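Training component of the fellowship. As part of building independent skills, the fellow (R.M.) carried out the full modelling exercise for a liganded target. The chosen ligand was dioxothiomolybdenum(VI) ion. The inputs are recorded below so that the supervisory panel can assess the work.
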Amino acid sequence: MTELLEPRAIGRDTVRRDGEAKVRGTATYAIETPVEHPAYAHPVQATVARGRITAIDTSAAEALDGVLVVLTHENAERLASTDDREFAVLQGDEVAFRGQLVGVVVAETSELARQAADAVRVTYAEQPHDSELRVDHPDLYAPEQVNAGHPTDTAEGDVAAAVATAAVTVEETYSTAMYFNNPLEPHATTALWDPATDVPLTLWDSTQGVHPARAAVCEVFGLEEERVRVVCPFVGGGFGSKGTPHANLMLVTMAARALPGRPVKLALTRQQMFALSAYRTPTIQKIQLAADRTGRLQALALDVVEQTSRIKEFAEQTAAPARMMYASPNRRTTHRLAALDVPVPSWMRAPGECPGMFGPEVAMDELAERLGVDPVELRIRNEPEVDPETGKPWSSRNLVHCLREGAERFGWAERPPAGHREGAWLVGTGVASSVYPTMRQAKSTATIRFEDGRYVAEIGAADLGTGAWTVLPQITADALDVDLDDVEVRIGDTRYPVASVAGGSSGTNTWGSALVVAATEFRSKFGGSPADGDEVSGDVDQASKDEDHSAYAFGAQFAEVRVNVATGELRVPRLYGVFGAGRIVNPRTARSQLIGGMTMGLSMALHENGVWDPRIGQAATHDLAEYHVTVNADVGDIQAHWLDEHDPYVNAMGSKGIGEIGITGTAAAVVNAVHRATGVRVRDLPVTLDKVLAALP
Ligand code: MOS
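Fellow's submitted model of the complex:
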């Protein structure tokens, strides 16, 4: 057990500390970094999905007045490490996916760089490629493990036997689309290589972690960490796509090293992002559920097929939530991957849990329907007493409470019957559960110093719009037992102590724990009246860590869908979520995270659809005109509520992390509501009007 901080600043609806700078436009993002006499880089991308470069002619590009340098595999520096093949830019003639970086032009203006990049002539010996995921792909393989260190497969009991004898079963296949991260701010960097100085490389980069980005660059270029600085005060969204660096960071670093003393700027275009800045693998989910007449699950199986790239393995842990959500004596989960000639898949909000809460939560709705049991009640009947996978007790699990409170707020008991019609609209309601693991990373240190009458904390944390600038001072103030206004927390620079990535909803849990350790040490060392310059540091590893409980945040989401009987147009006028996510450090930033996640889930349900063209190995939908994301006009009455949850096992703040849980289960709730409205069970996302049109009256 951990003694929870006495909440004074924690829990208060505190205004974002970075809000004014953002609203006034004075917050500088990576590409805006004021540097003297910048040059601009523009990538050259492969136009074949697989093959070799046989010739590359840069003469026309180099002849343009104002072009400073053109780099290709023929003249680029040799990297110290090419172990990570995503990062091994311009190291050879091999093309592993369409859109791969094969060159870069640096010029006096961004327009000129782009024009010159277009003038680079690349000739390829094209090879046959395979970029299409199929459930029966001949080369499916089992990875050694899936992401977050989860086992690839799990099994308990005998699913087949339970399915054969069960009163009611659901055996269906569900699929999720390819989703492309589209933060407002593209992946962007200002890079300066100045070999005459002690810290020759500075990267102002849009990243979810300055220290992890530095570590990757140092590995690739063979530089010592002391000689590289990464700075990132503000991020215009990441969702995981900036959680690990991508090839663009290596390319701009290489470009800067070719022009010593000259700052080089590179911002990916929106279209370039679709090949270079992280997408979520499509998933195919074969599900088996078996239950007795009362709805108690007797078997639960999820077999997942997904893709990775040929150059780098990324194994989305899609079956992870199915392992722990509901009680069932017989269980099986598997993951199989096809390594294709495609861009490298990567992190996107709630990797694993997001796609993995689609198929199973729709299947639960199908089971409820076949049983004639209310879908809220079905979930409650299958509540596990302990974590089914590990046998550990829960640190806290309030799924049932979330379901009940959500049902109450939503008016679930009074919901209209299936196929209810109001004028030109069919109305349906649906429910699904949400879940996200409570994580904490290693490797985070904070210092606290008394300076000019204030407490200044420093930690290399990142705020990708989530609220770290604001909640970290709240935590520090309470841990120091001082006024919030007397605390300043500085983040976003490798000059500050090492910090973990803003990923896995672990930022507040991790950096907050380090700050609490430092604050506790500060108080014991200097008491309540410190002198100027008094300083301590604290490491997250010194914070108590519970290994005896299974820790997750839970939630329940309720959707109302309206389907136009004439056009099939789908609207979601109401989307309510109730979450049990530990103590909420700041209700303002938390609400923003939760409704942001829910909106992204709505986007997944109705709009986002990476349409892949397997003939050329490219997303046909590769800009925001074709790849639709939910916007304000698509969101109706969206509400995020939370329980006053007290969890003494997770950390000193009692926080569980809220950045990702909001997207989990949302798409299932919407799909379940569409079924209630129209009778059409959509198992392949997104729900577009063509899928319901034929069934309309
Ligand atoms: Mo998030 S996908 O864990 O950065």
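The panel noted the following from the submitted structure. The chain has a mean pLDDT of 97. The radius of gyration is 26 Å.
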